[in-house]
Amino acid sequence: MNFFQYLIRTMNSSRSLILFVAFSGFFFVRTTLMPLAYDDYSYSFVWDGENGGNLEAMQNSGNFRRVESFADIFQSMWSHYFTWGGRIFAYGLAQFFLWFGKPIFDIANTVIFIFLILVIVNLANTWLKISRAAIVWIFLSLIIFASSSLISELWLTGSCNYLWMSFFQLFFLTPYVKALRSHEASNSALNIVLMSFLGLLAGWSNESGALSTIFLTIFLVFMCKAQKIFRAWMISGLAALIIACGFMLFAPGNFARLAFFHANFAYTSGIFFEHLIKFFTAVFIPDLIALLPMFIYFLRRSSGKFNTPEILMLAFAAAGLFVPVIMLFFPEFSTRISVTSINFVLVASTSAILELERQNFSLSLYFPKKILRGVSIILTSLCISYLVTLIYVDISVFNAARRQVRYIKRNSYLDIIPMPLLPVRHRFEDIHGDRSAVFYLKFLGGIEKNPNFYQNVLVAKYYGVRGVVGVDD
């Protein structure tokens, strides 16, 4: 069965397919409209570890060479591993797309987004057809509920670190879940090799997501053992997962970066509470919102022994909530991990939605149909308005960035090119927050008013000019 046959089979009606195509098209348009920014410029060049790398620790030595081959990527990630960080799979992927061009990334990113949704559905209830409610819930959770969704799904470097890595983490878990749902599992040398490879990809992804995947995989292996469907590939996959995660976590570059940002670092209760108050809720609350279908399912459930789908539901929910808990104990807490967390949660939520529909659950049993219809119309109108304004602002940001790039090229003869604020005239910061590029881009590419700021240097080198600086209008 090819991909398109599976896609059509997964949708239980033409309306479901139309919704799926519309949401995928929306995602593609937004990806296309997101300009290069921040680390995209850094990873466009071969990582210069000998001179502090290409980010905050960079020493302006003038040694800037664009990535132009796989050998450059290998050299770059080798240096990166020892001088800055262990996520060489994600950043190597980013360098590949920055080398080949953003249009290639725009297409690939949309394909991964589609694959991710299909993997979530497959994990939620293998081979069941997906409903419109599930499609809408997954999409809203990824685009609206998840914190920093733009930066971790549409921005090139961010997406490679979070959206793509989430796909590999969930895809790795699929054979374990399929074995538990079908109560059978094949075994062969090829399965061992494939699961070892998938384990390397899932483990060498991002820190908290990989750790959560490890704990969930251990739980699934024990479940397979209890159901007497244990196979050798289950251990080979888990071993590769743990080994890859270990290489990522204990990369020499992680310690070098920690020493640069936090000399003589010591974890304290103050750091814990700062993470908890400032960042944890920004990830945890969207997870709880995305889990509403599961809460409804268990509130309606009669007492009795939990079955396998219910245990898996709870396991994926716990894995998702565990992601921000892990981040509490890291030196730094990034809300970009919300996308990783919410993808685990969505497996549980989608499974709950499908189970509720199988049980013919309807809110009309609890509320009058007229009220439900009115609420549905209001919520649909608000969501459409929100999404339309997102696209509107994206177009404005895209056009503003494109005009400023042309401005840089016209003024390439200047020693320092003064760059005004991005002229985004219509903004909706109060409702969009960090779901819009306006939240992140005051000046083109993330430059500042200091011409010697590392981002200014990188943007200038990228466009082949001597210097750029942000100025007030």
How would you characterize this protein structure?
By secondary structure, the chain is an all-alpha fold. The chain has 21 helices and two strands. The protein folds into two domains: 3-361, no CATH class; 398-470, no CATH class. It has helices spanning 3-10, 14-33, 39-42, 70-83, 88-100, 102-124, 132-145, 149-153, 156-161, 163-182, 189-203, 207-226, 232-249, 252-261, 269-290, 292-300, 308-327, 338-358, 369-410, 429-432, 454-463; strands at residues 417-419, 468-470. A two-stranded parallel sheet has the order 1-2. Helix 2 (14-33) runs parallel beside helix 19. It is globular, with a radius of gyration of 23 Å.
Task: Annotate the secondary structure layout.
Blueprint lengths: L2 H8 L3 H20 L5 H4 L27 H14 L4 H13 L1 H23 L7 H14 L3 H5 L2 H6 L1 H20 L6 H15 L3 H20 L5 H18 L2 H10 L7 H22 L1 H9 L7 H20 L10 H21 L10 H42 L6 E3 L9 H4 L21 H10 L4 E3 L3
Parallel strand pairs: 1-2
Compact summary:
The chain is 67% helix and 1% strand.
What would the keywords be for this entry?
mainly alpha, two-stranded parallel ribbon
* Shape designation: globular
SSE ordering: HHHHHHHHHHHHHHHHHHHEHHE
Please give the count of helices.
Answer: 21
- How many domains would you count in the coordinates? 2
Low-pLDDT stretches: none
Question: Level of helix content?
Answer: 55-70%
Q: What is the alpha-carbon Rg in Å?
A: 23 Å
- Record field, number of beta strands: 2
Tell me the strand order in the biggest sheet: 1-2
Strand content: under 5%
Biggest β-sheet description: 2 strands, parallel
What is the terminal-to-terminal distance?
A: 57 Å
Q: What average pLDDT do the residues reach?
A: 91
What is the SS-derived class?
A: mainly alpha
